[in-house]
Recover the amino acids of this structure.
């Protein structure tokens, strides 16, 4: 698998803060997703698909939220929260996707800050559960989420992907 190169980032110009993403963040969000999908076995980067998906969320906040970790000029990380309803839980739940920190800024606690912000948001809005998928082969990713209270489910994911022409 070819690994996409993510642009080198300039030195941080301010202390990173977490904020809701905006349409103006789109180019940087797409680049983060291209880097993320280049690391995962199940997905292939496609900038037009990533932009379309991001736009669907950003333009319709009832579908979800995207939070970014940013300095004054650069987005260095993101988390994507998609909203759905669980009959098992009897209420709204979140599917958490796209947790990524730029490779140059990993192992500095930024991923944990993003995740804690997402958990706080979910509690404040009274969501009943957060579900996420992480790479089966990434022990580091699994350890990260376990450290923050996530546990393995006896459920396993299955997918049916439709051809674009179908």
């Amino acid at each position: 698998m070819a690994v996409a190169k993510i642009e080198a980032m300039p030195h941080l110009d301010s202390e990173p803060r977490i904020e809701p993403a905006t349409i103006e963040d789109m180019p940087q969000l797409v680049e983060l997703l291209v880097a993320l999908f280049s690391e995962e076995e199940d997905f292939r980067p496609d900038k037009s698909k990533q932009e379309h998906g991001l736009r669907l969320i950003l333009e319709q906040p009832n579908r979800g939220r995207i939070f970014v970790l940013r300095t004054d000029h650069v987005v260095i990380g993101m988390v994507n929260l998609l909203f759905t309803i669980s009959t098992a839980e009897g209420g709204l739940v979140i599917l958490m996707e796209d947790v990524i920190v730029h490779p140059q800024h990993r192992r500095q606690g930024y991923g944990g800050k993003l995740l804690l912000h997402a958990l706080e948001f979910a509690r404040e809005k009274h969501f009943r559960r957060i579900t996420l998928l992480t790479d089966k082969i990434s022990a580091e990713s699994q350890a990260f989420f376990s450290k923050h209270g996530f546990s393995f489910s006896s459920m396993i994911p299955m997918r049916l992907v439709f051809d674009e022409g179908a």
The domain at 17-147 is CATH 3.40.630.30 (Aminopeptidase). Residues 63 and 83 are 6 Å apart (CA to CA). Residues 1-5 have pLDDT under 50 and may be disordered. The helical segments are 26-39, 47-58, 110-124, 139-147.
